[in-house]
Amino acid sequence: MPSASTDQNLPLVRRLEAVGFRAWPATSVQYDGSWQIRLSGGHPSKRLNCVVALDPSDSRDIAVRLEKAARKFEAHGRPILVRETPLTPKPLIDRMRADGWERFEEVMTLTCDLTAIELPEDTLDHLPSHDVGRYVDADLIVHGSDPALKPALAEVVSAIKPPSGLFVIEDPAEGPVAVALCVQDNDLASIMSLAVKADHRQRGLGLEILTAALRWARMRGARTAWLQVVADNAPALALYAKLGFVEAYRYAYWRKGANA
């Protein structure tokens, strides 16, 4: 998949990071300088429970600030995670590596020009729901998640302030088989969650629900779509490439190693 130069595109990184925070809001957000400390006690999403540095030059007192952040995570019963993006100060990365932290789960952020792509006309019959409870139930079923997560996921979805499209494809006999969450923030459309039930994959449902969400966002004025996908998810990357998504930047997570 084609890649954009992250070194020359920090304004885009900053914009997508800011939009992403609004599209997937954490319960608690605190700042230490330009470091954002995101915590959501009831939901395990790494994006909702991590430290994110937003200024490459903000590298003062790294050890002290990491320890302070770690105590906040401990108070929430969670181990500290740091999310590394192109905005992360290099001294912070160097410090974590030297201290034995582990880097894991590289994620690609992809963008697509909605004004230039052709979307199938037959997706118009999939209209978004505004029923958060129905969408959350479907999301948990499709992902195979613990039903106990329902209140926490409902809280996250309900807290999204920009207009959101909650898409669900249901099988008459089996119930929900695909879901997508599209958040429109002015000219940007964020696909924050897209999944097809494991036993219904390879049937075109991913493309069907994704194009429905993108068509909805484009009709509302969105000009650019973006999403995030784990870098080793080859089937998803093939689907997104088919629609013209290209790489904007990558991020990854760091956690304390056994000897850190």
Automatic annotation (TrEMBL):
Sequence ranges assigned to domain N-acetyltransferase in this UniProt record: 117-260
GO molecular function: acyltransferase activity, transferring groups other than amino-acyl groups
The keyword NAD belongs to this UniProt entry's keyword annotation: no
Gene3D superfamilies, per the entry: 3.40.630.30
Organism expressing this protein natively: Ciceribacter naphthalenivorans
SUPFAM superfamilies xrefs: Acyl-CoA N-acyltransferases (Nat)
Domain of life: Bacteria
Keywords for this protein: Acyltransferase, Transferase
The protein, known as: N-acetyltransferase
UniProt cross-references to CDD domains, sorted A to Z: NAT_SF
